[in-house]
Amino acid sequence: MTADTKFTGQTFKSVGTRPLRPDGIDKVTGRARYGADIDLPGQLVGSILRSPHPHAAIRAINTSKAEALQGVKAVITAADLPDLTNGNKELFDILDNCMARTHVYYDGHAVAAVAAVDAVTARKALKLIKVDYEILPHVTDVDEAVAPGAPVLHKKCFTQGVEPKPKKPSNIARRSEFGHGDVDAGFAKADVIIERTFRTEQTHQGYIEPHACVASISPDGSGELWVCTQGHFVFRQHCAELLGMDVSKLRVTPTEIGGGFGGKTHVWAEPVALALSRKANRPVKLVMSRDEVFRASGPTSATSIDIRIGVTKKGRITAGDATLRYTSGPYVGMWAELGAMTSFACYDMKHVRTVGLEVLVNRPKTTAYRAPSAPMAAFAVESVIDELAGRIGMDPVDLRIRNAAKKGTRSSYGPVYGPIGIGPTLKAAKEHPHMSAPLGENQGRGMACGFWFNFGGQTCTDLNIAPDGTVSLTVGTIDVGGARASLALVAAEELGIPYDQVRTVVGDTSTLGYNDMTDGSRGTFSSSMATIMSARNAISILKERAAKMWDIPVEKVIWEDGCAKAVGKKHGNLAPLSLAEIAEAAPNTGGPIAGHNELVADGAGVSFATHICDVEVDPETGRTQVVRYTVIQDAGKAVHPTYVEGQYQGGAAQGIGWALNEEYVYGDDGRLQNAGFLDYRIPVCSDLPMIDTQILEIPNPNHPYGIRGVGETSIVPPLAAIGNAVSNAFGVRMTHVPMSAPRILAALDEAQAAASEDVETA
Amino acid sequence: MTNLVNTNINGDAVGFACEADETLLDALRNRVGLKGVKEGCGTGDCGACSVILDGTLVCSCLVLGMEVEGRTVETVEGLSNGAELHTLQSKFIEHAALQCGICTPGFLMAAKALLKNNPDPSEEEIRYALAGNLCRCTGYDKIVRAVQATAAELREA
Amino acid sequence: MAQHEVKLWSALRPFAQGESSVRIKARNIRELFARLEADYPGMVPLIRQGIAVSVDGTLYRDSWDTELPAGAEIFLLPRIQGG
Q: What is the domain partition of chain C in residue ranges?
């Protein structure tokens, strides 16, 4: 990191405007190419056989009949993906998840795959593969998995992070703890303490495009992969390592991505497609069905959270304590740890303790979902904060303002905060007209805060000046929500040229240095930083070239408004040289002009949001409709405000779906019962109101333009905001997400029964 | 058994071969090469494969390829008039009614079908008409606004 | 060279005799990791896996050049995953 990434307070010409996105035309005309739209000559169709059992040992797999079927070109099992992970546990888990080795751990776990001339033949071949399973006891529920006597997934799983090491294996793979102070002393000072247990069910990112790729490995061992991914360099790395290839010999070209939200940060079918192609010596296209996406990609955790918060009558939080159990599928993750880190991050707390427990269950491997793990923890904390406000008779916004973390507060996860933005979002919420708008019958209003860590990471961009002076910007972070437009705005700003003169493309793995994924809200934050540096790099070359054209010292040349200008008494009368003029002369002044940059983008800064929500509950059916919704969040600097709004609205909509309806439903047989969009119902257009947004711009001190990531935080508050709204409407505290109609109805009935009992006894 | 189907797609006479159990979605994508028709679920739940068949909006994954014999099919590829975009297409870009864009072809066809039958829909009518199309990126806000803006412009035209 | 009190998140503490912080002389993250690895070899696997370093509340990845200003609060945390 160098000092020149600091915020300078400059004024902007391009950044902050709302031009049309460069990928728009292709997407409205059907030309945009997504994962399933790529075809190669001679391509085969790949298909995966999946376990119908939630937990079983694989005794034997017989593929001979499938291999003998006409049109089948390759059949693979774990034997064709040998373990090359060399003790790397994380990589082994990825391998084992892509193709089960000794055991299957969930309904949908891959056990074999075929490549055939067409889909019909591939399906027939799958039916001819005989797998001999020894069925084992299973557990899918988070609380049952940690209960005594639960079936243990891995006999060698002794909880990490516990001293001394436990004597018995269990499904708790890891324990992590955060906090400071003395919570018992803190609770002793409280006037009111509320203790509750909350549950949230497992949800899926629900991207509309299923995972899809085309893999082609040549006899010389080099290969190509076209794939919808959030991180083609990471996919290249993992695939090359799992297949024993030289990393540089696998070229990964990202297609347009039809949604990811964290779910496309992980390889699922790609190593399988490559292994099939290697064996068949033909290109193989592998597209997951929707059923496979639900059963065998990576949803978020189901959770069970015990929480206890104490407060004084005057509204000062004295202590908070939380134990968070998060499912991570059959392999250990850091999901409970992230829940433990984020749960109390909004508040200034003297005494706080959070314990995260990673729980193994017979469900698919948990993967990141937009601000992973934070929404569930926020649901628990923000629900109790609201309830405490009610108990001490204080306005819930005021209670939060009173206790909001600020510069100098020791965060619940450890470090002391620098300047942060939760206070301004709360203040904006308090002043927002939504807060004082009248409510109708059966309606309630709730609000909640949310926190997420943003991050940066390894980033690399190229900025090439074409011979006509137009600019081609090549970035290595996948564009998931309009980043190509935003990054073109940044390049235009830095070079002082119109937006239309810049075209951004996402380069493949052979055209750029390594880039981390588009995750952690880092795409625009990181690549804009590298783009600014690339542009500055190009400008210094442009100035040298202009000096050569004028035959004056380069020190006498400045760059302004897209032109080289000569300065000083001697040269000040020279007419400026435009980018096009300098580019045209390039063959004579030293050849092509380009700017490059490689950096580790750091200083993303943490992110806060406050949401306000009105719901209307039908007391007859329990059906709950969101009737008004407002998102308030700090963007640092909104590069393209329309797309920032889009991130706020999209995250809120996903959170609303999670809060009210979405959940994985497992039967007693351990099989997923709703692996489709009909029964796993994400919000449709008629479920939602317009989603209002308020973008705050508190510059990030660690970015030249003050930019912050904006992608994730907006999914954090909705669960609690909606829970609080329901509670405010009917006086029932919802503790189980999703708050589906049957759960709300049951809570209403219970409250009514309690109320009538009160009347009878009175 | 492979059958020959003669039909009209986006104004052109088109013939394609397809199996008896092959969906219109697969035939359009794999036989005719119209990859703007997207598969999100294959079970009629997401609307990404929406096309207009003889003036009616359908999920092409729920129609067999053979069923379009002698009929007319409209897909996203036929929306624009040469280089001139349909108003819906330009309004979707202007209003940022798409992020990842995978659902966009389906939304455009559903919105076209709506506006043909109802040139002045209320917000509620728009929301119900588009309820068969799933979008996971936008929260629908900007999609509804793009359709409202299109309706207004088409009424003036 | 400034001596820093380097605070540890819970997973690192068992390798530092249960202490919640250690004192380390380092100018930058490279020197910090080198000293930690030398003094507390049990931390090596976690450091190699990737650690986030909070410097006065701002999270940095393990980029070696990042300077550690005198008097800054240094807090080691797990590297975050995102969506």
A: 3-78
CATH topology of A24-32+456-601 equal to that of A433-446+607-762? yes
In the 3-class helix/strand/coil scheme, how is A417-444 assigned residue by residue? Answer: CCCCCHHHHHHHHHHCHHHHCCCCCCEE
Query: What residue spans of A592-716 are helical by DSSP H?
Result: 641-660
**Which pLDDT score, from 0 to 100, does residue A756 have?**
84
Query: Closest-CA residue in chain C for A161?
Result: C11
Domain at B2-76, CATH from 3.10.20.30, 3.90.550.10, 3.90.1200.10, 3.40.50.720: 3.10.20.30
Query: Which amino acid, A388?
Result: L
- Chains A and B share 3 or more Cβ pairs within 8 Å: yes
Q: Is A23 on the interface with C (CB under 8 A)?
A: no
Residue B110 burial by CB count (10 A; 0-12/13-18/19+): exposed, middle or buried?
A: buried
pLDDT tens sequence across B67-84:
999 999 999 999 999 899
Burial letters A253-262, b for 16+ CB under 10 A, else e:
bbbbbbbbbb
In which residue ranges of chain B is CATH 3.10.20.30 found? 2-76
In this structure, the number of other CB atoms found within 10 A of the CB of residue C25 comes to 12
Put residue A257 in one of left, alpha, beta given phi > 0 → left and psi -120 to 50 → alpha.
beta
Res A1: pLDDT: 41
What are A691's strand-pairing partners? A629
Question: A24-32+456-601, which class in CATH?
Answer: alpha beta
Q: Do chains C and B touch (3 or more CB pairs under 8 A)?
A: no
The CATH number given to A433-446+607-762 is: 3.30.365.10
Q: What is the fold, at CATH topology level, of the domain defined by A35-137+205-296? A: Aldehyde Oxidoreductase; domain 3 (3.90.1170)
Q: C66 to chain A: which residues are within 8 Å by CB?
A: 1, 602
Contacts of C81 in chain A (CB under 8 A): 265, 334, 338, 368, 372, 519-520
As a whole number of angstroms, the distance between CA C35 and CA C57 comes to 22
Q: Delimit the CATH 1.10.150.120 region(s) of chain B.
A: 87-156
What architecture is the B87-156 domain classified under in CATH?
Orthogonal Bundle (1.10)
Please report the residues numbered 539 through 598 in chain A whose beta carbons come closer than 8 angstroms to any beta carbon of chain C.
none
B 81-140 residues inside an 8 A Cβ radius of A:
85, 88-90, 92-94, 96, 98-105, 108, 124, 126-128, 130-140
Q: Which CATH class is domain C3-78?
A: alpha beta
* Model confidence pTM above 0.95: yes
DSSP at A79: G
Q: Residue A753 contacts by C-beta under 8 Å, 6 or more apart in sequence?
A: none
Contact across the interface for C58 and A457, Cβ inside 8 Å: no
Q: Is A57 on the interface with B (CB under 8 A)?
A: no
A491 neighbors A471 (Cβ within 8 angstroms): yes
| Residue B130: closest CA among B148, B153, B155 | B148
Give how far Cα A110 sits from Cα of A50, A296, B136, C22, Å. Answer: 4, 8, 27, 46
Closest alpha carbon within chain B to A261: B137
pLDDT tens track for A127-177: 999 999 999 999 999 999 999 999 999 999 999 999 889 999 999 999 999
State which H helix or E strand residue A320 sits in: strand A317-327
Residue C7 has pLDDT above 60, yes or no: yes
Q: Which of chain A's residues have a Cβ under 8 Å away from the Cβ of C48?
A: none
Domain borders along chain A are 24-32+456-601, 35-137+205-296, 433-446+607-762
State whether residue B20 sits within 8 Å of chain A by CB.
no
Question: Does C77 contact A at CB distance below 8 Å?
Answer: yes
Using a CB–CB cutoff of 8 Å, tell me whether A265 touches chain C. yes
Q: How far apart are CA B32 and CA B9, in angstroms?
A: 10
